């Protein structure tokens, strides 16, 4: 049975919600063998394995994606989140920092890197949060999360991190 990538992604999502992850992988796997949607299918497989909490497989597919699409920010964000979910905070921060060098106002990278820095380097976290709040739309999901994170940092560090521009 032949599917286009969008149909395959919808079917894979349905299999995941039905608890049939193996079928989701089988539906998407043929798209990783080449063709017009090769890059998109590799990204889908990487995300699928991450969602299935299979980090080694997800990391492998992300590596394939990077070889083909090295300048795609959402791949870097996905890889960093996977590293963080696996407990590799330092590896995640390296990725976010590299991404922020190329895209200094990328909201997701500013927010997640601030979240990762919040305990070890709260001042750096606050700086990233303030930059995010200064540049993002007020109703952005990352701006809302950043305001909550800033309040939380202020409570845990005994000072008002919300003073100043936000």
From TrEMBL:
Task: Report the InterPro entries cross-referenced here.
Answer: TPR-like_helical_dom_sf
Give the superkingdom in one word: Bacteria
Its recorded name reads Uncharacterized protein
- Please report the organism this UniProt entry assigns to the protein: Noviherbaspirillum pedocola
